[in-house]
Amino acid sequence: MTLAFAPGCDRGAHPALMGQAAPDFNLSDGSTSVHLSGYRGRVVLLNFWATWCAPCIQEMPSLLELHHDRPDLAILAVSIDENPDAYNRFLIRHHVDLITVRDPDQKAAQLYHTDGWPETYIIDRQGFIRRKVVGPQDWNSPEIRAYLKNL
After folding, report:
1. Would you say residue 10 has pLDDT above 80?
2. What is the edge-to-edge ordering of all strands in the sheet holding 44-49?
3. pLDDT digits (tens, 9 = 90+) for 101-126
4. 113 by DSSP, 3-state: which?
5. Where are the alpha helices (H) located in 25-141, listed in sequence order?
6. Total domain count for the chain?
7. Scanning 4, 9, 46, 48, which has its CA 20 to 30 A from the CA of 113?
8. Of 82, 76, 150, nearest in space to 120 by CA
9. From residue 45, how far is each of 15, 66, 81, 84, 148 by CA, in Å?
10. Structural domain that includes position 69
11. Inter-residue contact 83 to 16 (CB < 8 Å)
């Protein structure tokens, strides 16, 4: 028997979220505030991550490249880091210039039933979840770029 592993596939413990309105949240970490509903009218990539997460670190360069190539997309990175100093050092060291907010209590992640990192939700212009990506994604792949362009 052959088993295949497909990172970044559309799966999860709560598939009922697919096609549903994205749960709204408002987060502030003292330096950045994010209110999801403020991005209505734009395609949103809601990325849950952490600085200590190896797959998150692996994914970050392609996420940043997508951010630079497609400024029309709203990429919101919600970090679950508890240590604000480690988080800020990571942002500086890796030149993270997309919108990111620290959510150490995982309030937003709980709304999405997320407990693995990284995990990304692609939300359409009307605020509905269209895709859930579990694990690191190559955001430069032709397939994902075409998918995002068609939203």
Report:
1. no
2. 99-102, 74-79, 44-49, 119-123, 129-134
3. 999 999 999 999 998 999 999 999 99
4. coil
5. 54-69, 84-93, 107-111
6. 1
7. 4
8. 76
9. 17, 10, 19, 23, 10
10. 35-150
11. no
